[in-house]
User: What shape does this take?
Amino acid sequence: MKRFGTILLVGAAVLLLVPAFLRSSPISQLGPGVVVMTPHNEQIRFELGLRFSQWHQREFGTDAHVAWSTPGGTSEIRKLLQSQWKAAAGAGIPFGGDIDLVFGGGSYEHGVLAKPTEADDPESTISVPHGFTQEELSAWFPTDTIADGRLYDEESFWIGTALSSFGLIWNEDEFAQRKLPQPTNWSMLAHPQLRGRVAFVNPAMSGSVTTALQSILEHLGWQEGWALIRRASANARSVSGSSTRVPGDVGAGEAAIGPCIDFYGRAQVAALEAAGITGRIRYRDATGQTVVDADPISLLRGAPNPELAKRFIRFCLTVEAQSLWQLPPSDPDGPQRFALRRLPIRTEVYEHLGDRMLDRVDPFSDAKAAVHPNRAARAFIVPLFVAMAMDHRDELREAWNAIVEHPSYPSSDAVVMAGDVQDPELRLMLERFDALPSVPMPNGTVADLNDSTVLPAVKAGWLRDGFQSMDWWDVESTGTLALQARASAFFLNQYQKVVGP
Assistant: This one.
């Protein structure tokens, strides 16, 4: 164990030195720059920035470089841009002028940037159409979808550059000690033997984790999905604010398992193997229960260098750039220093690279459409999760402990719900634990959030402030915060009932 800890500290020191090394790169001093805001890590920025400069010199005979802006995760980037838009609108000045592109972060967040900020003004979008022709798009994308997800926006606001999926990273030694089977799907996060050993992330702080939880809800179903999320949260050692924290915690032995983005998981495994630690941790997509999402790039309104920005987008879709995602640095066509372990978005690249790829996967064959698609579900993830898992963490854990320590609780690797047990006391405890709140609706009606069919109407009225005139929340608040507060009080009461007499 001491040797393991020493190697991890050395590995962490090496990773911490990466930013200083990258800042010393002379590439940033060459030619005009395209300004790219991104949540991507240092390794991706280095490899794509370097190769873009080389490609631009070869294709156009002039120098160019990428000036990276990294204010935080995707959700933080979106909120920052929305804040800047609001400030510009308030001052009566045009938006933009500083950033050319937003690169990475998932199709949902890029879709938000493409929506008008003012309902009566279609020109009030933060991003703008990229302007590539249908002929170009068809050449890059013989098919425009993967499972039930799009590879580029139908109205040309964003275009995918890579693919992301979600899965589990776990510690093999700890699973062996607990005599647990290797996880294949999300249900292992809810296993009673993993209480206090799950690494989890607050979706309020991470767009990618929100997408992972949306995948759980849409593959397992609304009620079954929340049951799993609630148990995983109760099992959590901690709930962090960054999706990058999970693979680090599992790799360091601080947690036994956690959900993470595919390339974060694969990169963590590879980092430990490079340090001489093999077989300690594993990563696997959640079989049949994960979404494969495009990782897009969007051109911003008021971009200072629009032509150079379009060249960067075009570069990202070349076979040369796509190959960087999956080839090792030792390959003549691969990255210079870092294995990126991402999935290319162009189908032909999989045929072109073949067995040269680091990860022998074919997402176009493996991706499955959601079993329970619900476009309204995502909007509820943050307010319900915060109310359910963040506001009353001690009470949540206490209620979960009371359930799994009940004498009649079955020994099972699956998620146990009320319908799975015979004991009336345990069944009532599980019913209370898994219940979702109700909210008032117009004309004296009530919407029960246990019923997923009510979500679109509740979303429009509560989460999009359609019921603002109903006096159900303060003028200075929002419907989302009001719903979250109601849900928080409800969950606390339910947890207390589970534990109480």
